[in-house]
User: Which sequence fits this backbone?
């Protein structure tokens, strides 16, 4: 009996120790300070830029997926993983649209707060590619939207979320993957080209979920979500015609009539123009 008691006590001790290590490792990742210098951008006021910002938010960068239909914020409850809360992005009470441009630039292109600590779950690894002009257009659009007065609660990590962050901080912390020293382009010209297709694939998150190699294979969604597909030269998308590709991106249904899991955000992408989807198609076709 005595021995059993000691063994049990030992096990309890190990569990307490493991929880402590987990807590310490995840707290270190979440409290890490990134040295980033903000690169302020000009916020335009002309109607063409506002329309550009509106289109990017609706069809490509999809801020509403996490920050709410009215951009007043929203919570994504993921059980023991945590509760990820997209803050209010309007200029209302509790919203950040009116904040200094530096704060917005740091959050959107670098995934960090003004104190250098990382935002969780905010996909800055995609938005870091935004040109100055497009980032300005997105911010101008946010500022033009009806003010919503809501102060959202903070994002919190649950025990499983802590375990994930302790094992691989990159899973939830974009600041770990962003190249903070990169110089974004001042502007890009929307056109039907491989280069522009790559730009859209970067800012639209295709290359985060499907990887820069486009080979996919990542498990990202809630339990039961398929791994991200191979959309490189070895993927089946290479057999699709451009029309079939556009159709799949707009309906979530493949040419063989099977459905694409809705974790793939085609509901936003369906608003892309034919030329935009065509440019992405050209980019995918150019990949090895
Ligand atoms: C996949 C979900 C997701 C998407 C898509 C997303 N965000 Fe976020 N964003 C978050 C979360 C979650 C936070 C809060 C993270 C935290 O507090 O740790 C956040 C934080 C922010 C902040 C920081 C607010 C502050 O307090 O300074 C800004 C600004 C922001 N997001 C802007 C945007 C913009 C603009 C877009 C679209 C271009 C966007 N987000 C798209 C999830 C998302
Ligand atoms: C949030 C993560 C995410 C983003 C962002 C994303 N995808 Fe996906 N995508 C997935 C997942 C997961 C699947 C697999 C779905 C399934 O198996 O049902 C998928 C499947 C696909 C498919 C179907 C491929 C096949 O062989 O069945 C295509 C095509 C595709 N994505 C293209 C894109 C493009 C282009 C973009 C950017 C405009 C993009 N995806 C952005 C997660 C994502």
Assistant:
């Amino acid at each position: 009996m005595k021995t059993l008691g000691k063994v049990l006590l030992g096990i309890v001790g190990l569990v307490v120790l493991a929880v402590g290590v987990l807590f310490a490792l995840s707290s270190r990742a979440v409290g890490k300070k990134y040295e980033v210098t903000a690169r302020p951008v000009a916020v335009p006021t002309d109607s063409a830029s506002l329309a550009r910002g509106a289109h990017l938010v609706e069809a490509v960068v999809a801020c509403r997926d996490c920050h709410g239909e009215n951009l007043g914020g929203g919570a994504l409850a993921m059980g023991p993983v945590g509760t990820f809360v997209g803050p209010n992005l309007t200029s209302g009470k509790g919203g950040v649209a009116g904040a200094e441009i530096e704060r917005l630039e740091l959050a959107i292109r670098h995934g960090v707060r003004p104190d250098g600590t990382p935002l969780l779950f905010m996909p800055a690894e995609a938005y870091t590619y935004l040109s100055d002009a497009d980032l300005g257009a997105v911010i101008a659009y946010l500022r033009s939207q009806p003010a919503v007065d809501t102060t959202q609660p903070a994002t919190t990590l649950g025990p499983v979320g802590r375990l994930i962050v302790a094992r691989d901080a990159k899973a939830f912390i974009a600041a770990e993957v962003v190249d903070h020293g990169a110089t974004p382009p001042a502007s890009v010209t929307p056109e039907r080209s491989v280069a522009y297709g790559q730009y859209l694939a970067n800012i639209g998150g295709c290359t985060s979920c499907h990887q820069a190699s486009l080979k996919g294979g990542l498990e990202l969604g809630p339990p039961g979500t398929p791994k991200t597909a191979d959309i490189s030269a070895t993927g089946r998308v290479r057999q699709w015609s451009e029309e079939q590709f556009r159709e799949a991106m707009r309906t979530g249904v493949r040419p063989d009539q099977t459905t694409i899991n809705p974790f793939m955000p085609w509901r936003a992408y369906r608003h892309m123009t034919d030329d935009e989807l065509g440019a992405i198609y050209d980019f995918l076709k150019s990949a090895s």
Remarks:
- The radius of gyration is 21 Å.
- Residues 61-63, 65-67, 84-87, 89, 96, 103-104, 107-108, 119-123, 127, 138, 155 surround heme C (ligand 1) (CB under 6 Å).
- The beta strands are 74-77, 82-86, 156-157.
